[in-house]
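Notes continue from the previous slide.

Worked example: a multi-chain complex. Inputs as given:
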Amino acid sequence: MYQFSGKLKLASIILIIVGALGIGYGFLQAPSTVKEAKEIIANQASHGDDHHGETTHHTDKKKEAHGEHHDDDAHAEHVLHQLQNKPWSAVYVSLLFFLGISLLVLAFYAAQRVAQSGWSIVLFRVMEAITANLVPTSIIMLVIIIASVMHMNHLFSWMTPGTFDPTSPKYDAIVDGKSWWINVPGWTIRGIIYLLLWNAYRFFIRRSSIAEDTANDGNKTFKKNYNVSVVFILVFMLTESMATWDWIMGIDPHWFSTLFGWYVLASLLVSALTVIAFVTIYLRSKNALPGVNDSHIHDLAKFMFGFSVFWTYLWFAQFMLIWYANIPEETTYFMARFNEYKLPFLSMLVMNFVFPILLLINSDFKSIPWFVIIGGIVILTGHYVDIFVMVMPGTVGVQWSFGIAELGAFLFFLGIFIFTVFSSFAKANPIPKGNPFLKESEHFHYYNIEHRGESADHH
Amino acid sequence: MESSKVIHALYNDDEILLDAVKAVKAEHHHIEEVFCPFPVHGLDKAMGLAPTRLAITAFMYGITGLGIAIWMTNYMMIQDWPQDIGGKPSFSWFENMPAFVPIMFELTVFFAAHLMVITFYMRSRIWPFKEAENPDPRTTDDHFLMEIPVGDNEEDLKALLSKTGAVEINVVDKH
């Protein structure tokens, strides 16, 4: 049985503390009044090297001859909200990244049970351990949901009072047209329901999977787990799509894309598989996973490769239709990203498509841990940037940067991830003994590769 | 080796065949050929055949297809008959490139797939109306056949093969 070492525990706690300090610093740096925001704007304007100075707001302002002073105030308030959003967005990006990875590992795990796959049984406890991170990330998500509803941040512009009120100067007819879906009570209740459903399945399947080890009841527990997983897959597909509309697409409430849910799914799924591969390689190097051989790593790397291509396909499918049709209400999304986020937006295509394609296309490389780790680090960085570019333009706009708050938030969630995942892995037998497909998984050998460090006599 | 004798050992299961091939190779006998009704994973490795280079040709065919697609879209849409579709009359291949990505993708796949199949047929010396080379029609149904040339070790080989689970062992003259 695996022991969660004190060294690793200490490292994770240090990460959490350092991360929390970074987030706290971000909140302290944010201006609290319009006056402070104006000072920051003046500072930015005086710096000649500031790339983000020329914004659409400035050009809009010049066109309007009247109300120069009023516009200045409105602009300052706008910037104030963006700057106040910065630490929140930093937390939100990392939160979505880690919450999404844990959720997609759970969904992948459920898919393995539904498919009654043979190869992945020895990885079940790794996947279950990673889903343990769903609990703390869900709690923090709940906090963010409540904070947003209570107007402690301005992540969701449509929550501004007056958006749905035709008499208000802040009235937004486009958003009001979707008010049957996009309204505060519905949004809040839905968010809580998603989190509850996901955590309920996780709670059940983890307990029942451990019960399977010692059940010895003619696979009755196994079949029950199968049935519940079938239901979860259906629930997951619906809730995941809706959650991405609510939590990510709702940041740009005027814009919509029908395949956005799948696009986010692809991004998080390839990250989830990379994380499974990382944790597996780490635990295997500590001799904590006796049943895992090179073929299992090879299969995970194949999934990383395949879903990288799938992500690119969806990214391009979404981009090309909007580019070709050239309808203003659709192109705004890409305009914002091409204008202010060019470097992260385009570099992520290289990291998420070109690099994994070139590195992982060779069959032999896919079972070599070093290659999988190098490819995986680039894939994870690329998909973090993907989430970053999904969230930031609608919340902080031109005021974006990657600084202490953003790094702190990432380290904070990384610390929580390490703590929950490895303490959860230490709590159960690393081999799911009761699974009827266990033997098949232990003997799994992809015919085209040699297993290093063991005899290759079984096939 | 003109008019040499060969042993035909027949098997009715791919797993048994694979173990038999390994056993025969372990005794340092040369296996001339194995005939199967379907591809058996790992058989090439067990027989000690060199790895296939078909994947490399597929890659080169794919690159060729990509190149032709780029040339073709540029010639048709930009050079020969410039077209203004959807208000994008830039007459520059690169600026219209997103519209050509599906074409580039499809032609890459088309070239890689078709030329790879044709290459495979040519390397396997298969063409329309060619007479089948397999020595026993049962290898197109549910039997596997291992062909081993024999010198003066016929009895040894027969004993070895029957031990490996062959359902039938025939010694035939090959011309």
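Summary box: Chain A touches chain B through ten residues (CB under 8 Å). Confidence is low (pLDDT under 50) at residues 48-68, 455-459 of chain A.
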